[in-house]
């Protein structure tokens, strides 16, 4: 149950009206609300009550007035005069995120004050909404923050014919808050100007391997999406595994390259995260996919314990485990089973780790937010038409939703 309460001094509303009544009405109330107010002969109690009700709803939602405007929150009245909330498309999306089934509003007027209470009843059966077993939250950013505070991450991805993997992983990282994002690519890709977001920085991959540049300047590293399989790729992975001391995320072709050399995972100085789908997990542990799907948690936990890694086993109800703790995700939908979705997730995980979050907690938050972004994308595009870029579009909203609201002013 979510509750919002607001008390407003009627004298304050009286002063706002006296300053500029028309401007105040237009900024705060919808046309129907203005008509209701005028039917009540512009009663200060009526105006103050509606004002307080809007504030109470915004507090209940945890948004405040800002992204949700005054006029997005429309208070209507039944034939018997009971106030109720008219739910527009923006509120529908937020209600789905919060799992809100219905809202009850109460308005009271005293001589000097107007008081409003908004109470939401949550529908626990909805697939969207922060689950009880995900206690982690993103930190609210300080006012005087700069890009250096939010990580410098490297992403080794892409190849000829697979430039989309690089693009999606970079955007996944950028849209989830990284301060600086570098794409480390082979020299052929540097000649293609459209392979990366404008905000990303591209560097020749060989500069970091052959010339021994300082790889540990990066706060986290992603290796694998779309790089292909071969001797040269394995050489790169070996180099980064040995030389990079911070957390590394190995995804997609990064995993396909090491199936015969899993000691690469075990012998690192820094933490390692792997993000296989069932097919990649099948190749890693040499079990068929049916077995993986029938024993998802068991396979993930066992591999994490054996290789000292965090495993993010993707698919329906993605599993995150460090071999001891286990998180099963319930956000997301079948529309996310589309090319590039995993590249986006890998970028989000790498981004959150690079920003300084604990590796396991970062994986849990990334998986949940990625699934929630997919659920929001479904509301706009449907399950059949969704593509990976649609998930990226809603990542900022999904991540904002898991920001620590206790820090909000």
Q: Short summary of the structure?
A:
By secondary structure, the protein is of the alpha/beta class. It is 43% helix and 18% strand.
CATH superfamily heading of the largest domain: Ribokinase
Please give the CATH class of the largest domain.
Alpha Beta
Instruction: Please write the string of helix (H) and strand (E) elements.
Output: EHHHEEHEEEHEEHEHEHHEHHHEEEHHH
Proportion of β residues?
Answer: 15-25%
Sketch the major β-sheet.
9 strands, mixed
Please report the distance between the alpha carbons of the first and last residues. 21 Å
Helix fraction by DSSP (H/I, runs of at least 4): 40-55%
SS-based class: alpha/beta
CATH topology of the largest domain: UDP-N-acetylmuramoyl-L-alanine:D-glutamate ligase
How would the global form be characterised? elongated
Number of distinct beta strands = 14
What is the quaternary state of this protein? Answer: single chain
Rounded Rg: 25 Å
Number of helices: 15
Mean pLDDT: 90
Structure write-up:
The protein is of the alpha/beta class and 409 residues long. The chain has 2 domains: 2-122, Ribosomal Protein L22, Chain A, CATH 3.90.470.20; 147-404, UDP-N-acetylmuramoyl-L-alanine:D-glutamate ligase, CATH 3.40.1190. 43% of the residues lie in helices and 18% in strands. It is built from 15 helices and 14 strands. The protein has helices at 10-28, 31-39, 44-61, 89-98, 163-174, 205-209, 231-243, 253-256, 263-266, 278-285, 289-294, 296-307, 341-354, 359-385, 388-401; strands spanning 2-9, 74-77, 83-86, 100-109, 113-122, 152-156, 180-185, 201-204, 220-223, 247-250, 272-274, 310-313, 319-321, 326-328. The strands form 3 sheets. It has a 9-stranded mixed sheet, sandwiched between helices. A 3-stranded antiparallel sheet has the order 1-5-4. A hairpin with a 5-residue loop joins β12 and β13 (319-321). α5 (163-174) crosses α13. The radius of gyration is 25 Å and the shape is elongated. The model is unreliable at 124-128 (pLDDT under 50).
């Amino acid at each position: 149950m979510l509750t919002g309460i607001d008390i407003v001094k009627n004298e304050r509303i009286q002063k706002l009206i006296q300053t500029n009544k028309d401007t105040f009405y237009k900024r705060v109330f919808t046309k129907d609300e203005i008509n209701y107010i005028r039917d009540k002969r512009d009663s200060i109690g009526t105006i103050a009550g509606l004002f307080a009700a809007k504030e109470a709803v915004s507090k209940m939602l945890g948004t405040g007035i800002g992204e949700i405007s005054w006029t997005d929150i429309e208070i209507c009245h039944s034939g018997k005069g009971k106030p109720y909330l008219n739910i527009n498309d923006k509120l529908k999306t937020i209600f789905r995120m919060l799992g809100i089934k219905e809202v009850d509003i109460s308005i009271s007027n005293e001589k000097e004050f107007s008081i409003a209470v908004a109470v939401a009843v949550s529908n626990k059966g909805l697939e969207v909404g922060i689950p009880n077993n995900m206690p982690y939250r993103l930190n609210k950013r300080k006012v005087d923050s700069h890009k250096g505070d939010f990580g410098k991450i490297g992403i080794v991805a892409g190849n000829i014919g697979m430039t989309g993997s690089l693009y999606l992983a970079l955007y996944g990282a950028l849209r989830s808050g990284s301060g600086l994002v570098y794409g480390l690519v082979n020299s052929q890709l540097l000649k293609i100007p459209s392979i990366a977001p404008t905000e990303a920085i591209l560097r020749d991959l060989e500069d970091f391997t052959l010339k021994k540049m300082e790889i540990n300047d990066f706060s986290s590293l992603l290796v694998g999406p779309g790089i292909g399989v071969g001797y040269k790729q394995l050489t790169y992975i070996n180099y980064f595994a040995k030389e990079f001391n911070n957390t590394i995320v190995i995804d997609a072709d990064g995993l396909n390259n090491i199936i015969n050399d899993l000691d690469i995972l075990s012998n690192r100085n820094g933490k390692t995260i792997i993000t296989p789908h069932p097919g990649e997990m099948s190749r890693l542990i040499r079990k068929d996919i049916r077995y993986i799907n029938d024993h998802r948690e068991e396979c993930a936990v066992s591999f994490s314990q054996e290789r000292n890694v965090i495993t993010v086993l993707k698919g329906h109800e993605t599993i995150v485990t460090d071999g001891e703790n286990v998180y099963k995700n319930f956000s997301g939908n079948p529309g996310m089973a589309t090319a590039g979705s995993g590249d986006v997730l890998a970028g989000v995980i790498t981004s959150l780790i690079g920003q300084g979050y604990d590796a396991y907690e970062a994986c849990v938050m990334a998986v949940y937010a990625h699934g929630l972004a997919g659920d929001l994308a479904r509301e706009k595009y449907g399950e059949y038409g969704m593509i990976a870029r649609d998930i990226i579009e809603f990542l900022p909203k999904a991540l904002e939703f898991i920001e620590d609201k206790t820090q909000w002013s």
